[in-house]
Amino acid sequence: MIAFVRGTVAAVSLTSAVVEVGGVGLELLCTPDTLASLRDGAEVRLPTSLVVREDSLTLFGFADEDEKTCFELVQTASGVGPKLAQAMVAVLSPDALRVAIASEDVKTLTRVPGIGQKGAQRIILELKDRIGAPTGSTPSSSPVPAAAPWRDQVLQGLVGLGWSAKEGEKAVEAVADQAGPSPDVAALLRSALRTLSRA
Where in this protein does the record put region Domain III (predicted)? Predict the structure, then answer.
């Protein structure tokens, strides 16, 4: 098991980063938020999870140990593979994920691409007793954890349209004040695109 990698960022793409460790370039699949924090040439230490399949070895990289722990835990639910687990930690922070599962919040879980209502109910049923309490200082009644998903959705939309993660982050920040309590992701994406076209 490769628990973490420490080295120099050699390249950052839309879905992964290459970290040079001892002269070897290791490709890590990461969430948009993690990729946005990486810079070419920077020294990094990223927790990792190695997924072994008959025909592949895939290394997933994370912003911190908490994100990695959630990624590995949600895969113990039936029907959740590494790609879906990565989508879950991309859309929801670890604490937002814990709150959603503990409070049986199906609506929040179905924001994750690939999770329908039945899938969300199954994940809640299988993980509710094992997910644990939120580790941050944000109380579970606070609406703050639910504010993040629109940012990830808009960023992923921009990256999918060919903008870099860095450009996408700036555009997301530029439209953040338009979000409001119930963000309209499509409208925010259009606003972000207008911001980028003006730039």
Answer: 148-199
Q: For Cα atoms 118, 61, 137, give the angle at the middle one, nearest 5 degrees.
A: 70
Which are the contacts of 166, defined by CB distance < 8 A and separation ≥ 6?
36
Work out the pLDDT band at 199, boundaries 50, 70, 90. low
CA atoms within 13 A on the CB side of 72: 18
Residues 78 and 121 in one domain: yes
Q: Check which CATH number belongs to the domain holding 9 and give it.
A: 2.40.50.140
Give the CATH number of the domain where residue 74 resides: 1.10.150.20
Structural domain that includes position 122: 65-127
What's the CA gap between 196 and 36, in Å, rounded?
Answer: 17
**Among 44, 9, 13, which Cα is nearest to 164's?**
13
pTM score: 0.66
